Amino acid sequence: MIRVELPAHLRTLARVGREVQVRVDGDVTLRSVLDELERQYPALKGTIRDHVTFQRRAFLRFFACQEDWSHQAPDAPLPPEVASGREPLLIVGAIAGG
Amino acid sequence: MSDVRVLVGTRKGAFILTSDGKRDKWEIDGPHFAGWEIYHLKGSPADPNRIYASQSSGWFGQVMPRSNDGGKTWETMDNKFVYDGVPGTHQWYDGTAHPWEFKRVWHLEPSLTDPDTVYAGIEDAALFRSTDGGKSWEELSGLRKHGSGPRWQPGAGGMCLHTILLDPSNARRMYIAISAAGAFRTDDGGASWTPINRGLHSQYIPDPNAEVGHCVHHVAMHKSRPHVLFMQKHWDVMRSDNAGDSWTEVSGNLPTDFGFVIDVHAHEPQTIYVVPIKSDSEHFVPDGKLRVFRSRTGGNEWEPLTKGLPQSNCYVNILRDAMAVDSLDPCGVYFGTTGGQVYASSNAGDEWKPIVHDLPAVLSIEVQTLA
User: Fold this and answer.
1) Which pLDDT belongs to residue A96?
2) Model ipTM?
3) Considering only the top CATH level, what class is A2-93?
């Protein structure tokens, strides 16, 4: 299972805890993980990436194994540690006041 | 006796304030959607327990909650607002062409007769409609594709469609307003639109009398006379007696005619309310005094209403969707401030008191009068 850690507001929206688990058949990529995440939790559609372009929302970042994956291609394989569930994929809101 | 439910949208969540018909003691429920901007929430006239809300965030975009039990519980509906066809461009602040991009929902207007039909005014300016209770949205693109669309430009708050008025006597007619394009009317259910800005005069645009480009802040009507419209423009309070075909200024003796809100008494179609704001560069009430101004003559002759409102050291603003009335007798009038106060008058504005005074900045107020 792939572990995905969500920011607080998205946990509330999806009515889940800090971390959710999704099963991905095939390549484990940002696209496949987010597709499955949105399938399991439809309330998250449009809140992480645009409905139409699938671009990451500007104030969100993706981290995996202490690396910034925000600018990686959506079909690039995520690290084996994420694919095996040893490490989570982190979805992080940009730090800003207000 | 009827009850009153006040729906408050704020910068950091929604609050629901309830009272009986005396409007003396209030219960405060919230925050709902804590931490999110709630630009607007409004109940269906056909089913008051059906409430639609606009929940948004700079981080996570747009979310569309809906309640079927008067705001006790909420479910998340469709948040996919996709412009019809190739969106094209409008003017940016500097006059250059800028692509249409969805940012947020500013205003929700439920149908007068069908709880599952609701209109959404969005930024960048367009009108959407759902006929399945918010499960899906389609653009009424005749508005945005009106020939003037490429000349529309944003106001300081963004290029928002913020006002939607449904004509209770003619289901095919509605009015909308956009900052900063102006007001528009449809007489065919939203298929085609006519700019209704004749008589508006705006010094801040190259042609002060242009067909479009005016920064309309809000428009109000009384249900018994839907052809009479009252407008708070960027500067100037305006009135139309012919469904927007032409406008005349009715600012009269107001201390300043800049402002955002305007509303009409529930039972007196000639009685209107505004809250003058000092200027477009100083968005707070003048002289440190929070004063609602009432005209009983449809404009021009205004009286300040101050009893119960702070008359010194007050520097709040009242945003465009943050005033509403109930339909009790005497009429209740309500408004919210950027300082987080919600003021109510249970006697048509003669006296005021705060229902609650330490909320986040208030973005919108709607009132439901419940049988």
Assistant:
1) 65
2) 0.93
3) alpha beta
